[in-house]
TrEMBL record:
Species of the source: Absicoccus porci
Record's protein name: Restriction endonuclease subunit S
Taxonomic lineage: Bacteria, Bacillati, Bacillota, Erysipelotrichia, Erysipelotrichales
PANTHER family for the chain: TYPE I RESTRICTION ENZYME ECOKI SPECIFICITY SUBUNIT, TYPE-1 RESTRICTION ENZYME ECOKI SPECIFICITY PROTEIN
Alphabetical keyword list: DNA-binding, Endonuclease, Hydrolase, Nuclease, Restriction system
Any single GO BP term: DNA restriction-modification system
Domain of life: Bacteria
GO molecular function: DNA binding; endonuclease activity
Length: 431
């Protein structure tokens, strides 16, 4: 193995003596090529999880692109695409596409054509390099959670500062060997990750199926059923009633208290104080017009995100925007919650919505009150809720274990990349 020398750079440590230590600006050049006149309408997006992809493949949809694309920049295959605002959270990747990107993105290519762009991209993929950029940015808004993960980062890294950073540069043939080896190893890890992620998706789908079946068909499959003529309910047990929401639910508005914290209803169904999850990434209102009080145990339906599952029982006392519908009922609240979630899972709210915006739809009390709800006797509701809670608890435990596996694999991949692109490990001779 090559002799190692001290770099004097905290994130790098020692590196091979046969390598060079160079400033990024002497290795990579920025491409600044505007899409004016418009050469392409193919918009590219960049995420830490998916890399550089066509915008319509972005998970969750993302922000709506501008209609005028002339202010966008062009990205080419082989460009390292970097989000100047989010590189700290991993928004950097190697493009396989020709398209246009937001002006906040940087496009970088090697100054010398015979160098391997993959090698530089791998350096930028390492968490330890990304974290080393703390202090370089303008306009920091970030929060590190207890497990070390970063929430939303809005921290612009100026190119002049970025270009002045030193990185280890391997000889060209070594760059290729490292990049070829990492391509193969990362592909294997990504295949494992994709397999586990698919298992998680199957389990999440199973949870939704259990909820929908139980709240519309009950637990006893041997009872007689009757037709409701309501598409999302279908047949239900004969002894159940089908009732409009206004007859079993009550829309309530409570006063706020001086010490109330802000409550948010999240898309995973948790209703809790915003401070319990994260503070960053939210816009705080200057005037809390129409804010309402929420107590522990209140049933909450998000008026804009309910279609995506933002329906739950509050675990906290606090205040919330009027966009949240706070409901009371003499029925089992968790049963009603599960039924409303089942409608969200079946896209019923989207189908009945008017005025759909991107990633949201209007779901107010006037609609919730007119919906039909299958209503079993309360004691049966209680048994249904106990069964659902029990099943979900077991499935969630499996999902948690699998997500921990995903985190472990992702961390292993980044650690492996770091060790090879800094020369702390050599590519095996038989690789």
């Amino acid at each position: 193995m090559d002799a190692m020398i001290e770099s004097g750079i905290q994130w790098l440590g020692k590196y091979p003596a046969s390598w060079k230590l160079k400033k990024i600006k002497y290795c990579l050049q920025e491409r600044i090529e505007k899409n004016n006149p418009v050469q392409t309408s193919d918009i590219l997006s960049l995420t830490a999880k998916q890399g550089v992809i066509p915008h319509d493949q972005k998970e969750g949809g993302g922000n709506k692109p501008k209609e005028d694309l002339s202010g966008y920049r062009l990205a080419y295959p082989g460009d390292i695409v970097m989000n100047s605002m989010n590189i700290l959270s991993g928004s950097v990747g190697l493009s396989k596409y020709f398209g246009c990107v937001s002006p906040v993105y940087y496009m970088l290519r090697p100054l010398r054509n015979n160098e391997d762009v993959r090698f530089y991209n791998y350096i930028f993929q390492t968490t330890i390099f990304q974290r080393s950029l703390f202090g370089l940015g303008n306009g920091i808004l970030m929060k590190e959670s207890n497990n070390g993960k970063l929430n939303t980062i809005r921290m612009r890294i100026p190119m002049d500062k970025f270009g002045g950073l030193y990185i280890p540069v391997a000889p060209i043939e070594t760059q290729r060997r490292i990049s070829d080896y990492l391509d193969i190893q990362c592909e294997k890890i990504e295949a494992l990750i994709a397999n586990i992620q698919q298992q998680v998706e199957v389990l999440e789908s199973y949870k939704k199926t259990v909820i929908t079946e139980c709240v519309t068909k009950g637990l006893n499959q041997s009872v007689d059923y009757k037709e409701t003529n309501i598409q999302w309910i279908g047949k239900m047990p004969n002894h159940w009633k089908c009732v409009r929401g206004k007859y079993i639910l009550k829309y309530i508005q409570k006063t706020t208290r001086e010490d109330d914290g802000v409550i948010t209803c999240f898309r995973d169904g948790e209703v809790t104080l915003r401070s319990n999850r994260r503070e960053d990434g939210f816009t705080m209102a200057d005037k809390e017009i129409g804010y309402q009080g929420i107590d522990v145990g209140d049933l909450v339906v998000h008026g804009m995100d309910g279609f995506a599952g933002a329906i739950g029982i509050s675990d906290s006392r606090g205040k919330a925007s009027p966009v949240l519908n706070v409901l009371d009922t003499e029925q089992n609240k968790r049963y009603i919650m599960y039924y409303l979630r089942s409608m969200a899972y079946s896209d019923v709210f989207l189908a009945m919505s008017t005025g759909i915006r991107v990633r949201s739809c209007d779901l107010r009390w006037n609609k919730l009150s007119e919906l039909f709800y299958p209503v079993p006797p309360v004691d049966e509701q209680n048994r249904i809720v106990e069964h659902i809670d029990s099943v979900l608890c077991k499935v969630d435990a499996v999902i948690t274990a699998k997500r921990e596996q995903l985190e472990t694999l992702d961390e292993y991949k980044k650690t492996m990349i770091y060790e090879y692109v800094t020369g702390k490990k050599e590519v095996p001779a038989d690789a």
